[in-house]
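Figure 6 in text form: structure in, sequence out.
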């Protein structure tokens, strides 16, 4: 059996993933037409390229349908419970950096920390009769983080995009989202809580569990690791 490597098929991570492997003597390329999600690997034998959405790579790794995968470290933590028992971090790739943070309106001058948020949430509930709403697509990471930091009086609102806009639209009071330049937060009048950093994400090469791997696959992985210096 060949070793299947899943990489993002488009978007912000794809090109840099190709560059990162190329710099280490492994050429990944899309085969076929631009819109066809087929690929090939040159520079090492026994590896098959699978082009996938970054968000699906954690699940495919966990299911054993791919053996290696490149995706954001945030996505692996969000999509897999006990992620570190399911996949192994082989190499941090040094790009795709973004911080998952909690932010509130700049106008909330009394709220700068998680403790302040907790107090504001209790006051909010007493006043409005429902829990303060935090919009996010990172449900698992946000729940774990708030639980570990003693914030309980809130509800999560699912937002799969344009999350910063939920506050203006009055569908949430706070957000938990990815930021890199901070532009989107500023443009929407939001500020990050001083202790509101949930995870500093970057593109990472992961491998799945090896129980089902054949000796050939293990040898290929070893050869790849030595090329990558991982
Ligand atoms: N400014 C940014 N905004 C959002 N995500 C970013 C940013 N910078 C880096 N990332 C990272 O990029 C990854 C998401 O990549 P991308 O947006 O290409 O995938 P996606 O389109 O969300 O996934 P899918 O293809 O599953 O929809 C995440 O790991 C995220 O942390
Ligand atoms: O700090 P910044 O550089 O402003 O980047 C952060 C923004 O980028 C991402 O959105 P994306 O472009 O992926 O669109 P989305 O809202 O559909 O997730 C993220 O969700 C933030 O909205």
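Output sequence:
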């Amino acid at each position: 059996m060949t070793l299947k490597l899943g990489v993002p098929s488009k978007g912000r991570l794809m090109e840099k993933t190709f560059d990162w492997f190329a710099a280490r003597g492994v050429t990944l390329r899309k085969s076929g037409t631009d819109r066809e999600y087929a690929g090939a690997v040159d520079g090492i034998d026994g590896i098959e390229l699978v082009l996938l959405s970054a968000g699906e790579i954690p699940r495919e790794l966990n299911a054993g349908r791919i053996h290696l995968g490149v995706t954001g470290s945030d996505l692996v933590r969000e999509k897999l419970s006990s992620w570190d028992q399911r996949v192994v971090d082989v190499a941090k790739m040094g790009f795709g950096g973004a911080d998952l943070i909690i932010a509130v309106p700049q106008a909330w001058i009394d709220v700068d920390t998680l403790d302040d948020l907790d107090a504001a949430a209790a006051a909010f509930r007493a006043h409005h009769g429902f829990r303060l709403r935090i919009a996010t697509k990172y449900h698992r990471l946000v729940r774990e983080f708030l639980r570990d930091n003693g914030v309980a009086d809130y509800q999560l609102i699912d937002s799969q995009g344009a999350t910063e806009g939920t506050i203006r639209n009055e569908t949430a009071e706070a957000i938990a989202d990815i930021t890199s330049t901070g532009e989107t937060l500023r443009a929407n009048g939001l500020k990050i809580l001083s202790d509101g950093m949930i995870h500093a994400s970057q593109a990472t090469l992961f491998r799945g569990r090896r129980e089902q791997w054949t000796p050939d696959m293990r040898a290929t992985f070893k050869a790849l690791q030595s090329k990558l210096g991982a």
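Caption detail: Residues 59 and 135 are 23 Å apart (CA to CA).
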